Amino acid sequence: MNVSLPLPALSPDELAHSEQLVQRIRDAIEAAGGWISFERFMEMALYEPGLGYYSAGATKLGSEGDFVTAPEISPLFSRCLANQCVQVLDTVNGGHILELGAGSGVMAADVLSELDRQQKTPERYLILEVSADLRERQRALLQRRLPHLMDRIEWLDRLPDEFRGVLLANEVLDALPIQRFRIRGLQVNQLGVTWELGRLDWSEVHADAALEATVREIEFNLGEPFADGYTSEINLRLSQWIAGIAASMKQGAAFFIDYGLPRRQYYAANRSAGTMLCHFRHRFHDDPLINVGVQDIGAWVDFTAVAEAAIAAGMSVAGYTTQAHFLIGTGIEQFLAPTNDEELAARLQMARQAMLLTLPGEMGERFKVIGLAKGIELPLRGFSVRDLAASL
What separation in angstroms does the CA of 102 have from each of 108, 142, 217, 317? Predict the structure, then answer.
């Protein structure tokens, strides 16, 4: 197991919570005949009502949580996103902004604040959030920071039937449940979870038809088979998920920001253990079967799969680039320009934040942005500096 630092012990409350969810998963394993797919395990670990990591009430983001996202690091990130939103909203003559999985609500607050400053406030700011606890945290933050805009903010349980405008999704794709596979000789195996000797444990079975066909298609596209023992991930739900967004969006653009790679790099021979990572109190490791329900589980994104799913659903790929180039294209330098009323300490802090967001060794290259468009054709600001779409 790869661990960045020793993992802290669970508190009594965390331990009780985790044990309750483990029992729920154990019941599911027994009901399924002794084995469930990793996809099903991940779905329960993250989203089981009242118990899953994203469904329960613990703090997840920021210094007191398990990880920090770009909007938590600096409002610069969201202000740049706001500039990109302005371009799209102007093109479609108004419309809404829809954010998927708004976390603490910081990104929504900073995007809306910048749009309000520019007098470009959207007709509605919609938030699709599955966690009741996070909804309340978002509502409290937005009420405190933007009370005059609360009548424009609406929480949704599902995608709207019709939508025109901008969709934003920061670190959402990595949390979609994935299938894990392992090559055993000439066979594709599916990794799953069982209950052995009083604990959750890994178990392999021959992959089902859908997973095996997808693995073989990837091998064909790469031009060579995976080596014996090669282990990685595939999101078999992605196509349907993107198709739902495409059906909902009548005109506009969607922006997905996440850590990931084009397929050829994602499934490179030297990445033979996959990309899945767990986060717990700012430590990372690769064992999702511990700390169940109180740690995050995610996997890097195959952005080629995102592009293929979008095209199949009737959308176009408007661009693909690193987070650093996207932020430069959307005007991060304008927010770094000194003003007369700004103190030196504040300028230095903002400069440090910009470095965290853009440097290759930080988030600048590890995180990518893909833009998907429907019903519009224009060069989007975020991809004007460097567009890597050809690498997909």
Answer: 7, 11, 34, 24
